[in-house]
Amino acid sequence: MAAWTLIIFLAQLAAGAGQISTDDLVREPLARLKHLTSGVAECSTDEQFLIVKQLAELGEPAVAAIVKELCERPSESTAIYRRRLTDILGRIRGKVADRALLDLYFYHQGEGEVFDMQVRAALERREITCPVPEHEVSKLCSAAAQRDDLHRALDATLILSQASRLPVETRLMPAKELLYDLMCFSASAPDIFVEMQIRHKAFWLRGIMLAARNAGTEGRDFWKQLLKAAETDEQRLWLNAALGMAGDPDVAVIIRKAIDDEQDEYLRAVLVEAYGGSAKKEAVPFLKQLLHESAVPAEARQPAGFEMTVEQAARSELLRLERLGRGKMR
Predict the structure, then answer these.
(1) By the 8 A CB rule, do 273 and 314 touch?
(2) Which own/partner contact pairs does 185-189 have at CB distance under 8 Å and 24+ positions apart?
(3) Cα 242 from Cα 216, distance rounded (Å)
(4) How buried is residue 246: exposed, middle or buried, by Cβ count under 10 Å (0-12/13-18/19+)?
(5) Residue 194 domain flag
(6) Residue 215: what pLDDT?
(7) If you average pLDDT over every residue of the chain, what do you get?
C-alpha cells in the first residue's frame, strides 16, 4: 500500500511547530492494542476500549502514528485492530484527524464492510474543519447523486453537510435533491421503494434532516429560499422541518401541529427531533410527555439505530438539549 501524503504533511507540521514527539507515548499502547486484537491474546473488549480512550485523549499528536499503522497492508488478523484505530481517529477532533478520515474514505474503502461503515459514520458525526479539495467535493457530489444506492447517497450527503469550510449551497444542495427525489420516488412507486431500499421512508428523511442540523444556522437562508418556491404540502412540511433542525425558532408552531396531524409513528419521530431543534428548551415539557407514548408495539418496532419511535426521538432530543445547555455540543 502506498504511503499517504498525509504522513509527510504531519511530519512537516510537527517539525515546523517544534513539537516534542509523542512516539514513546503512542508506541506501547498501539503495540498492546495490536496484540489484544490479533486473536492470540485472551482479553475483554473493555481492555481494548480503555486503550482506545487513552490514545484518543492524546489528540492530534497521536494521529501520525495511527496513520502509519493504517498504511500497513491489511490482513484478516489485523481487521479488528484497524477498526479500533479508526475508532481512535473518530474520537480525535481537529484538521489532521479530519484529513486522515477523509483519506480513508476516498482511498481505502473496500477493506471490509464494517471498516468502511465505521469510516463513513465517523465523518458523518463530526464537523470537518480541514480543506476538502475540489476533486474530492466532486466525488462526494457524484456519490450523493446516486439513486440506485440510497445508502451511499445518504452517506455522501451527510459528509458534505459536515464540511464547514465549503459554501452552504455545496453542503446542502445534495440534501435538497435527495429530499425532493425521495418524495417523487416514494409517491410514484411506493411498493418498489420500500422493497428495494428495505427501509421506512422516515429513515431517509431523518438522514436529510440531520444534514440540515449539521449545517446549522448557516443553512437557514438556503431552506427559506426553497420554502418560498415549494409547490406541495409535503415539500413545505419537510422544508419547515429542515429549518427546525437548523434551529429556526419561527417554525416551532408549524412543526408542533404537524406532529399532532401525522399518523405514521416513524415520521412523527423525525418531526419530534425537528421540533426540539426549533423550540429548544421550550420543547422540554412536550418532549417529556412523549416519553410514555408509543403507537408501535415493542415486537413490531424496527431495529434500534434505524427508524426511531416517538418515545426514542423524545428521549434523544431531551439528552441533546441537556448537553447543549451544558455547552457540550456545537
Answers:
(1) no
(2) 185/147
(3) 10
(4) buried
(5) yes
(6) 97
(7) 85
User: Are the C-beta atoms of residues 72 and 1 closer than 8 Å to each other?
Assistant: yes
In a domain, 239, yes or no: yes
Pick from 34, 156, 52, 41: nearest CA to 102: 156
Q: What is the pLDDT of residues 28-78, one digit of tens each?
A: 999 999 988 887 666 678 889 999 999 999 999 999 999 999 888 888 778
Which residues, in sequence order, are bridge partners of residue 163?
A: 128
User: What is the tally of structural domains in the chain?
Assistant: 1
In a domain, 200, yes or no: yes
3-state secondary structure of 100: helix
Q: In this structure, is residue 249 part of a structural domain?
A: yes
**Residue 93's beta-bridge partner residues?**
none
Q: What is the pLDDT of residue 2?
A: 40
Question: Which of 104-113, 223-232, 294-303 bottoms out in mean pLDDT, i.e. has the lowest?
Answer: 294-303
Q: What is the pLDDT of residue 8?
A: 43
- Is residue 12 very low, low, confident or very high in pLDDT (cuts 50, 70, 90)? very low
CATH code of the domain in which 266 resides: 1.25.10
Residue 173 and residue 300: Cα distance in Å, rounded? 35
Q: Does the pLDDT of residue 189 top 60, yes or no?
A: no
Category of 72 on φ-ψ map: left (φ > 0), alpha (ψ -120 to 50) or beta: beta
Amino acid at 120: R
The Cα–Cα gap between 93 and 329 comes to 13
Lowest model confidence (mean pLDDT) among 86-100, 196-210, 290-304: 290-304
pTM of the model: 0.85
Domain range for 308 is 134-296+303-325
Q: Which three cell numbers stand for residue 289?
A: 410527555
Q: What is the DSSP string of 105-156?
A: HHHSTTS-HHHHHHHHHHHHTS-B-S---HHHHHHHHHHHT-SS-HHHHHHH
Q: Is 163 helix (H, G, I), strand (E, B) or coil?
A: strand
Which residues does 321 contact at the CB level (< 8 Å), separation at least 6?
276, 280, 281, 283, 284, 287
Name residues whose C-beta falls within 8 Å of residue 247's C-beta, 6 or more positions apart in sequence: 216, 217, 220, 277, 278, 280
